[in-house]
Design a protein that fits this description.
22 strands; TIM Barrel; alpha/beta; 453 residues; 14 helices; binds zinc ion
């Protein structure tokens, strides 16, 4: 099967290409990027549109697996379907230390059943910590438990996980001994450690040092997650300078960020332990509940206390980051785009359905960021970061994962009230050369496969 995507403006930062060219896909892979029009079985007209590698989202919280071992596949409410509709063709799940299922088995399930998008996984330290019997997030783990975590992470890496993730914020009992031991399986593999830092706002620089020093001492690439929600409260300049200084001294460290000024986490999480109002300099009304009796409402102290006790898993959105700080992060050359998507039965944060179009609508269209640089932040840089073979590039031999969009019209439409609404201007998404989504509608729900590293 040969597919020719013709007449579009091809942008492929991996090959340094930005010009009007045609892309030939043969048997699922890119066969040629050329000015001519080779014969094909299927022709996709991309005139007036941008043609680039399918977007790669390296910070996703994956869809659940049910008790019979089947991947959640509701086309209207799953994270992965939101991803596909906005042009993402490959995700990296298992972030912030969390896995919903054994990450190695998860990759097998994706290969068995297919998924809306291609899926790579990180081994979540928190998942293996719980499995090792360290039930108290606030207490140190025993040496034996730490050994069990490291073994679990090592096995997951052997099965093709692209790295490991740490949610120090969610397991504050973790000490340096545990962090180093759990990170040690990454040593020498070239696979990164991703981290939701221990603390944010005024404490973010110390938290960065804790993680970056640990990764640096083992020679493990460090990926600092969703920095807008870590340093977007007035610390971004100092935070980026600290990361830049580490890069300049030779450390392999990078960051990702999502383009929203509100974060999302569970109501029961340590983020909302005593002191959070002072930390963010906000009131209870900054906090919006996304589920339950108070869905869509801002909190009062009374609602906060009542719901946190009664419904700790309730999804929340906290409107506290400064927009200019988030912008500073996204425009920085060392920062790539990633959504931190999370979705529970269609409820969550609009970043799951809007992040990638939003970068173009908010930063490229008004002239703050070049389209070429934006595409690099969405394709080549994230794919490179995790060594995702065949992804994030249109060079011959790469996978035929492509997004075609209208650069003038593309925009996110998902809101906090309607977080899964698909974007506008994403014309066509191809996975392995086959049409997977068109104009916000899913054409093929199971083209995605595991991406193992
Ligand atoms: Zn996180």
């Amino acid at each position: 099967m040969k597919t020719l995507v013709h007449g579009g403006r091809v942008i492929d930062p991996a090959s340094g290409i930005d010009s009007k060219l045609n892309v030939l896909i043969e048997d699922g892979r890119i066969a040629a990027v050329c000015p001519g029009e080779p014969p094909a079985d299927r022709r996709v007209d991309a005139a007036g549109k941008v043609v680039c590698p399918g977007f790669v989202d390296i910070h996703v919280h994956e869809d659940p697996v049910d008790s019979s071992g089947r991947l959640y596949d509701d086309p209207d409410r799953s994270v992965f379907s939101c991803m596909l509709r906005m042009g993402v063709t490959t995700v990296v799940g298992g972030n912030c230390g969390a896995n919903v299922w054994d990450p190695g088995d998860y990759l097998d399930i994706v290969d068995r059943d297919g998924a809306f998008v291609n899926v790579a996984m990180l081994a979540g330290h928190g998942y293996f910590r719980t499995l090792a019997g360290a039930a108290d997030d606030y207490a140190p783990a025993s040496d034996e438990q730490v050994r069990a975590m490291a073994d679990g992470i090592r096995r997951a890496l052997d099965r093709g996980c692209a790295g490991a993730s740490f949610g120090i914020r969610y397991a504050p009992g973790m000490d340096k001994r545990e962090l180093l031991a759990a990170m040690a399986p990454l040593r020498g593999t070239g696979k990164p450690a991703a981290c939701h830092l221990r603390d944010d706002a005024a404490a973010v620089l110390d938290a960065l040092a804790e993680f970056a020093d640990a990764a640096g001492s083992l020679g493990v690439p460090a990926q600092v997650s969703h920095i807008g929600s870590m340093a977007g409260f007035g610390q971004m300049e100092a935070f980026l300078a600290a990361v830049d200084a580490r890069r300049a001294s030779g450390q392999d460290i990078a960051c990702d960020c999502y383009p929203y000024d509100a974060f999302s986490t569970g109501l029961g999480s340590a983020t909302y332990d005593d002191g959070w109002l002072e930390r963010y300099g906000c009131g209870y009304d900054a906090l919006e509940l996304c589920e339950g009796a108070y869905k869509g409402r801002r909190c009062t102290e009374e609602i906060f206390r009542k719901e946190r006790a009664a419904f700790p898993s309730c999804r929340t959105v906290c409107h506290v980051m400064r927009p200019e700080e988030v912008e500073k992060a996204l425009l920085h050359p060392g920062v790539m785009l990633a959504s931190d998507a999370t979705m529970h039965l269609g409820q969550g944060h609009p970043r799951a359905a809007g992040t990638f179009p939003r970068l173009i609508a908010r930063y490229v269209q008004p002239g703050k960021l070049s389209l070429y640089d934006a595409v690099a932040k969405m394709t080549y840089l994230p794919a490179m970061r995790y060594g995702l073979k065949g992804k994030g590039a249109l060079r011959p031999g790469a996978d035929g994962d492509i997004v075609i969009f209208d650069p003038e019209r593309i925009r996110d439409t998902a809101t906090f009230a309607d977080p899964i609404r698909p974007p506008e201007g994403v014309d066509m998404v191809l996975i392995g050369g086959a049409p997977a989504a068109k104009d916000g509608h899913i054409l093929a729900p199971a083209l995605g496969r595991s991406v193992r590293v």
